[in-house]
C-alpha cells in the first residue's frame, strides 16, 4: 500500500542565527542590498510565489555586445563573520541556461580587496543553451584566481530546474584554506588555497560579472551565509526493525551536506509531501490513532515525529519532501513477525513441539523412555522378575509348589491311587513317589529314616522294600474286613 500526502504551508518566525539571511520575500532593496551600478543595464524583478519558498528574485539580460564586463543588475550587501575561520553559504538558483563560457555568477563573496570565492556557471560547447556546468573559483592571498578542476565524470546541469548550491570555506584568514562546493547535496570539487589575512565581508548577487554576449535569466531564493554548516537536506530516522504490532516512529530533522550532521534551521520549514509504503498512516500520535491533518511543519528547534503501523509487507518505508530543503532519502524498517521457532511468542517452537511434546516429556523420558516402555512395563516388573521370573515360572508355579511336595507327592500317588500298578513300581515308586510322595507323610509305616529318599539309592537299605510289602499286605487285609484304616493298629 502506498500513501501520498501533499501539504503546502508557510514558514514561521526565524530562529537560527546567521550573518546574512535573504529569503527574497520582498525586494532586495528593502533588506539592505544596494545597487552596484553597472552597464549595460539588465532587468530585475521580484517573482511572487515563484521561489522554492514563496517569492524569489529574478534577473535577466537580453544580451548583445562582446568581451567581458560587469553587468547590471548587480547588488551588494555587507556582513560580519567576525574572526571565524569557517564561512558557509547556500542558495537556490534556477537558470535558463547560458550561451557563453563565463557567467553568470549568482553569488560572489569578496574581501575588502577582491573576490575570495565564487561559483560560476559555464556553457557547454556541445549544447550551450541546453546543458551547462559550474566551476568553483577562489582567489588566493596574492590575488590569483584559481579554478577547481572537476573530474570529467561530473554530471552536467539541467536548465529551468531549481538547484541548491552550497559553498564551504574552511581555514579562512589562514594559509591552510579549503574551498568546497556542492550542488543538490553532492560534493563536486575541493580546492586547497592560501587565504592568509583574507576574510569575506561582502556578498554580491545578480549579473555582477559575465560576458557581454551573455543572454539569459536566473532566479535566486533562500540565500543564507553563516559561520556554521547550514541545513540543506531533510533527514528521517527510525529503528532498523520493529514488531508487526508496533506503532513505528519516524523522526524528522535537517542535516548539512559537508559534515552530514544535524544543522540548525533559521525558521520552521513546511513539509510538502510524505510518502508511505508498506504501512498504515501516517499518524501524529504514538498510539497510531490520529491521522495527519492538512498541516505539517518541521520546527526550527526540531522535534517532529510521524508514526505508521505495519501492514502485510515485511518492510515499511517512508520518505518526505520539505520546502527549502532537499528531499529525504527513503527510510526502510524491517517488520519482524512471529514464526514457528520463537519460544517467546509461544507458537509451535520450543514450547509446543520442542521440549514439551515431542522432547523430554511426552515421547522422551516419560512415554517411550524410562517409565512406560522401559523398566516398569517390559523390564523388571512385567516380563522380568515378577511375571516370568521368580514368581510365576520360578519358585512358585513349576518349582517347589506345583510339581514338588503338593501335586505329585503326597496327594495323588499316595493312599488314593494305591495298587501295584499305580502306586507301586511305576507310579508311586521310582517315578512319582520318590522320597516325598510315598514316604512318611502318606503311610504310618516305618520311621522317617527308613523312608527318606526312597528310590534314589542314596541312603535306604533292604528294609525299604520290606516296608512296602508290609504296607501292601496290610491294606489288602483292611479292605477284606471292610473296616476303616484308622481302627487298625
Which features would summarize this protein structure in a list?
Jelly Rolls; alpha+beta; elongated; Immunoglobulin-like; 14% helix; disordered N terminus; seven-stranded antiparallel β-sheet
Structure description:
With 489 residues, the chain is an alpha+beta fold. The protein folds into 4 domains: 19-226, Sandwich (Jelly Rolls); 233-336, Immunoglobulins (Immunoglobulin-like, Sandwich), CATH 2.60.40; 349-396, no CATH class; 401-487, no CATH class. It is 14% helix and 32% strand. It has 8 helices and 27 strands. It has helices spanning 350-356, 361-366, 375-379, 391-396, 401-416, 426-431, 448-451, 463-481; strands at residues 2-6, 20-22, 34-35, 43-47, 56-61, 68-69, 74-78, 86-95, 107-110, 115-123, 132-139, 145-147, 163-170, 177-183, 186-193, 202-206, 210-211, 216-226, 233-237, 241-243, 248-255, 269-277, 279-283, 297-298, 304-310, 315-322, 331-336. Strands 2, 4, 5, 8, 13, 14, 15 and 18 form an 8-stranded antiparallel beta sheet that branches. A 7-stranded antiparallel beta sheet has the order 3-7-16-9-10-11-12, with no helix packed on it. Strands 1, 20, 22, 24, 26 and 27 form a 6-stranded mixed beta sheet that branches. Strand 4 and strand 5 form a beta hairpin. It is elongated. The chain starts with a strand and ends in an 8-residue tail after the last helix. Residues 1-16, 125-130, 345-371 and 378-489 have low confidence and may be disordered.
